[in-house]
Amino acid sequence: MYQGRTMFKIFRACKMRPTRMGFEPTRAEHNGLAVHRLNHSATSSCALPFRRLCTSVTFRLKMVDSQYYLPNDIGISALDCSEAFRLLSPQEKMYAHYLSRASWYGGLVVLLQTSPESANIFVLLQRIFRKQTPAQLEQVATAAGLSSEEYQAFLVYAAGLYANMGNYKSFGDTKFIPNLPKDKLKALVWASQAFQEQPAEMEALWDSCSCLLYSLENRQKQLGLGDKGITTYFSGNCCLEDAELAQKFLDSKKLSAYNTRLFKKEDGGKACYEVRLASAVQKDCAVDGECESCCGSFSFEDKEFTVKRGDYSRVMEKVCYYLEKARAYAANENQRKMLEEYTRSFTLGSIDAHKEGSRYWIKDKGPIVESYIGFIESYRDPFGSRGEFEGFVAVVNKAMSERFAKLVSSAEVLLPELPWPQEFEKDAFLKPDFTSLDVLTFAGSGIPAGINIPNYDDIRQTEGFKNVSLGNVLAVAYATQKEKLTFLEEGDKDLFIKWKGPSFEVQVGLHELLGHGSGKLFVQDDMGKFNFDQSKVINPETGEPVSSWYRGSETWDSKFSTIASSYEECRAECVGLYLCLNKQVLSIFGHEGQDADDVVYINWLSMVRAGLLGLEFYTPESKRWRQAHMQARFVILRVLLEAGEGLVGLEEVTGEDGKPDAQITLDRSKIPTVGKNAIHRFLCKLQVFKSTADVEGGRAFYDKYSTVSDTGAHNFLRLRETVLLRKEARKMFVQANTRISGDSVELVEYEGSAAGLIRSFTERFQDDAEQLESGLLELSKQDAPCWC
């Protein structure tokens, strides 16, 4: 990455040890002292002729290290849902309260799904802040020798751990560590009231996680499978071949991977696999409500597989308890049946029950309080099949929902405009609910702007789905300050700030409804029946009859595995770009004339800029993308650059600060012609590969545009360094709590700061804190040998 032997000699002169990242920081530099130490070495440790080059080294060290810290000035905003909550009836408030409790407890599963140390760090922080608020602890920190900046760095780290439900960023899967020296953090822990009251327990807790808390060994820098990174979806000795074999086994048993983890053991030199199902019940035999158990031991391809229940059992018990409480306040029979099936799913570890619950959820049209809960998105499973737990509770925003309802009504007119043949579209468009919601609770590793669920292909294709846009998230997540806008021409910045929000609203609506909601999968079921006419359907890319399709229990995720999430996000983003050119769509969202033209321009410009920003989420050493959406946006940037004719310009320049910079230009006059044609061709190919289950063709096609190299018209590896230099940390959100007071439910709100985010979490679990923390530590401890 850094160039040649001369630079290597300079590293040695500066007492750096080279690795593929350029160097490996010393322990002190891991502990937040890199900037001071390298500035010193650049001026005094190196001979004078090397001073300028060593300063460059210093600059690059800061740039690389910043990936693994959360800056003290990171944006933290409170999600406002007070007015929406106030308007709920007493019954609706109770319903929302108990669903929120189920979601928050279920969200703790993510700690155990993220890294071996996440749960222990969480408990360490909870014990510290349960005894002393951030304001009270500040005096202790000062007495322990921490500066105000170091204490703020500790608060930001704690807030980041809570917001991401682990010590890896939910958006990008990169590890983050405290931006203060390890000995300073240890001093603070030792000086805390929690330590004074229980020194042995707190020291043992520190010892269990402090090493990994600060470690930036290569494998621990990001999530991944095998030697590519850290994952707790698989035991530490699993590799891609194990994941592929396990998927085949699960398919053979018609078991979904969504709520599973895989653990590999050696028995007499023979590989044995344990598939764990997330469930409150730990018995593997058939229990009440089951005809037969899916658990047991099986031989498959000369390997032994055991399917067991009871993963995350203590947490799943709490989820089921609160879902039962919520059921008493359900508004209708669909909600009651939905919660009954969810409870059965989390009790028994049954995805089939969750599917049944999802069917009732789809039928529950236009509820005032909307929710969904379970093992949902597979972005963070390195193999792309296992779902991360999430649960949300939100209240309908009626005014904005009316616009989305109009978009739904127009869907059957808009779908034929998409660039693939009619045979590649679903036989009938199942009009979904599409609502704008103000989030009350979103538990998991992060909060999206919009959602299209359920993710079960068999339900989506024939029974329907729902779309939601999270209005109060959009209101604060994408607010931009002009001075922080990177890579745009000055003349575009004011327009970008004015129309970024409205254009993103249009993009989210199209992305979720007509992106994820469109397209047919060609399937041959277990009985040999096809859902398309083999003799008539022609592949538009080859001119030949369709020759491949999904068979039996194969799904999009199981078939396309590691690229499925990003590929699908790319397809949905392209649908948004393509259909936002439609005047009818723009009118639905209230945009006419010049305003409509500006919305289109900023939507496309945002996508091009996002493609460049996406380089932050690419790891050159492993040649791996760490974030599905950002990979998708980079792919779109490549497609639009390839279109040529001056549509998109991307130039490396020197910024006003004298450091590397870049500038993006987009010729708005060519969007309806050159731009639309490029997306038309690309989008059609994406859909054809997806419809026909052509994994080989689809992967080769998508990988081609995903490639990041230093050759060709643009040096994307060098541009990545510029993006890292000028990146802005992703915002974090503070969410309210609900609590029962007498016969009513109160909303408890917090300030939009690191301290406010911390307080929201310590107060969230205060009723049974010690029992809960003990349970998390036990779950973490029992799996600890599996990660070695």
TrEMBL record:
Protein's UniProt keywords contain ATP-binding: no
The name this protein goes by in its record: Dipeptidyl peptidase 3
Active-site residue numbers: 512
Family: Belongs to the peptidase M49 family.
Gene name, Swiss-Prot/TrEMBL: DPP3
Enzyme Commission numbers on file: 3.4.14.4
Molecular function GO terms recorded: aminopeptidase activity; dipeptidyl-peptidase activity; metal ion binding; metalloexopeptidase activity
Cofactor: Zn(2+)
Organism: Astatotilapia calliptera
